[in-house]
Design brief:
By secondary structure, the chain is mostly helical. The protein has one domain. It is built from nine helices and no strands. Helix 6 runs antiparallel to helix 7 and helix 7 packs parallel to helix 9. It is globular and about 60 Å long.
Length: 236
């Protein structure tokens, strides 16, 4: 057994062994950090409560994600955009099947569910200002609706121009970045919202980002870039 293990190790690429070692060390470090996290910290909680009235929203989670530490969320949105760019650089999207093979019951359910899912997504975005919800939750619902449309081969989904998809992808990140730069210019701080404007600016960011996130998730499921004449790629 030991000889077999040694032969297995010697057959590995040195870079693979280095990667495994670094991965093991990272796991150990994360485990040590996790074990040393205090059970409860009242310092951050007290700070958030004291600044809540200035955040523009009633939800402490939204206040942290889009006000106090808004640049973290901005980077997360950019990561999703970069992920789509990476997928599109590799291959074209492919068709999932033939409309004739889709059950009429499935098509009927999709036509009924899609508007409801869009309504739920809009509600989650609106609710994010005072309860659990927000751009990522609403975007996830929109992405699920997009996946349903794709797997059901709804014809109009293949007629959407590629330019429209590109605009939709960058719409949220562009608005988010524009507001951040405006705050930096007007107030001297990144996402340091003007007094009295934080509420509607956060709502604007969440609405536009939810649309882009939903489109991003659906296009990641499609698995490639759209055809220039529409959103449908090579049919295999």
């Amino acid at each position: 057994m030991k000889k077999k293990w040694n032969n297995h190790i010697r057959g590995r690429n040195p870079f693979q062994l280095l990667f495994l070692f670094l991965l093991f060390m990272l796991t150990v470090i994360l485990a040590v950090i996790f074990c040393n996290i205090p059970e409860k910290s009242s310092v951050l909680e007290a700070g958030i409560v004291s600044m809540q009235n200035q955040s523009g929203v009633n939800s402490p989670v939204t206040a942290v994600l889009l006000n106090f530490r808004g640049y973290d969320t901005l980077l997360e949105v950019m990561v999703l955009l970069i992920a789509v760019i990476g997928v599109w650089s590799l291959t074209k999207a492919t068709s999932f099947g033939n409309t004739a093979d889709i059950s009429p019951v499935q098509l009927g359910v999709v036509h009924l569910l899609t508007p409801v899912m869009c309504l739920v997504a809009a509600y989650l975005v609106w609710q994010g200002s005072h309860l659990a919800g927000g751009a990522f939750q609403g975007g996830a619902i929109l992405g699920a609706a997009g996946v349903l449309l794709l797997v059901s081969e709804i014809p109009w989904t293949h007629a959407v121009p590629a330019l429209v998809l590109r605009i939709g992808l960058v719409f949220g990140p562009l608005i988010f970045t524009g507001i951040a730069l405006y705050c930096l210019w007007a107030r001297g701080g990144l996402l340091d919202y003007p007094t009295g404007s934080a509420g509607w600016l956060i709502l604007l960011i969440e609405t536009t980002c939810a649309l882009s996130i939903g489109l991003t998730l659906a296009l990641l499921f499609a698995g490639g870039r759209p055809d220039e004449n529409g959103s449908e790629g090579d049919i295999q």
